[in-house]
Amino acid sequence: MGKMNMNQAPLTYGGDIQALVDSEELYRATFDNAAVGIAHVKLDGTFRNVNTKFCNIVGYSYEELIRLTFQEITHPDDLEADLAQLVKLNAGEISTYSMEKRYFHRDGSIVWINLTASSVTDEKGAPKYYIAVIEDISERRRAEQQVRESSRLLDQIFRHSLGCLVLTDWNFNFVRVNQTYADVCARKVEDFPGRNHFEMYPSDFEKVWQEVRETKIPWQISGRPFVFPDHPEWGVTYWNISLVPVTNEKGEGELFLFSLNDVTELKRAEEKLEKVNHVLEERVEERTRELRQAQQSLMEKERLAVLGRLTATVSHELRNPLSTINSSVFVLRQMLQELSPKMEITMERLERNIARCDKIINELLDFTRKQDLALSVVDVNSWLENMLDELQPPPGVSVEKKFAEPGLLANMDSGRMQRTIINVFENACHAVSEFSRQGEEGRIVISTARNGPNVEIAVQDSGPGIANDLQEKIFEPLFSTRNFGVGLGLAVVKGIMEEHEGGVRVESGKDMGAKFVLWLPLASIQQ
Questions:
Q1: Are residues 135 and 114 in contact, defined by beta-carbon separation less than 8 angstroms?
Q2: In order along the chain (527 residues), what is the average pLDDT of each group of 10 residues?
Q3: What is the number of other CB atoms lying within 10 angstroms of the CB of residue 54?
Q4: Of 127, 123, 129, whose CA–CA distance to 91 is shortest?
Q5: Is the pTM above the cut of 0.85?
Q6: Phi and psi angles of residue 461, each rounded to the nearest 5 degrees, phi first
């Protein structure tokens, strides 16, 4: 609105008075009902006239406002700029001006307005008063302030985020990166804008970006491995990654927000923890086995203690009647010079069962009675050769000897070791006899060998072998797969070998029978 000259030609008497009245009413209606505030302001700043909208904007009534000046309700920080514009307006340098400024509301709050001012002049061009048009822009300013604050906060978050943040355009060219991302890549922030992401860091990850560009669906992954091509010495790193497409109001893609979080240390810690857990699980399992074995050993010791006491009593009570029966059989044979075939069979049965009972008593005594070893240095091959000469295999079973280098010496109790060889040899004979088919000869191979610091004695048969699930059980006391005996033979063997600081193991498989290997340390002079 420019300067307005109010000295127009006077109306003639014959003019249209009604038109003048209508014009005045129209002006008044426009002034009072305008959607913006309107004020006529005197040259000293006093309000000459104000409309209802202006009163509502500043919260004053008409009567209160016309007693005030615009200087009194203008914020001090905006007054100087407003007065400077009035000086130019009064000097004719400008015909109108607009500015955003602040008013004090009647309740003390701040009201932002957009002011457009012009002047009304007399016939000489001198200003008579000012016309001010006031638009309340408080809501707009608050919205703008919120936008500015949000932008500031987002900028701060982007700049100072501990995670890596990247903005690229729709063709994967860097637009902006934060300092964290630049630090991770060992570069400067300004090294990235304008360069293509996959030209700097080629990988198959580009396929994922292309898919997100096509679908506009966000994508994320945890613990993705990555090797920096320009820093291979860093090795494999691991990242939590998210890729979010940014679209405009029309749904058209504009940017990608690419965020990364380095979880390499966490991943490596998890791997270490997994290894530790695995070790702990193994230790727990091992400790559990040890406790189970200790418990089993304790139970066996308790059982063996009872068995020992029982054996000491029973063996004494049984040996006397067995001795009497054996003597009686001998006397009968002497008295009866010639026995009928039926009587001969009966006598042999008596003698076999007496021997069997005596063997059971000996096994019980060997197992339950701990004896001090009578150790001496023995040539193993010679000792074994002499002992095998006394062992007679059953009909249909051949024995082959395969002795290793001569001069294998071991420190052992010959009598106790003899018990082990006899037990293992008799087991082999039973296995071969039961398995051999009619017309086929059973075979037992007895061998010796040096194995590191030990000497080994092996007894291998051509029998049916031993099932895998039974190979650990056969050395347990009172376990037997036969319908005779008490299952102490191999338990005695194991005990005697352990007393010699050696041991026994079984090897068995399809078409190989069973092989029992006994080992004990070589004599010190041999070492």
A1: yes
A2: 44 54 68 90 95 95 95 96 94 94 96 95 89 95 86 80 89 92 90 92 88 93 84 86 91 91 87 87 86 77 62 61 74 70 77 71 62 85 88 84 87 88 86 66 88 91 78 65 59 85 84 85 69
A3: 24
A4: 127
A5: no
A6: -115, 170
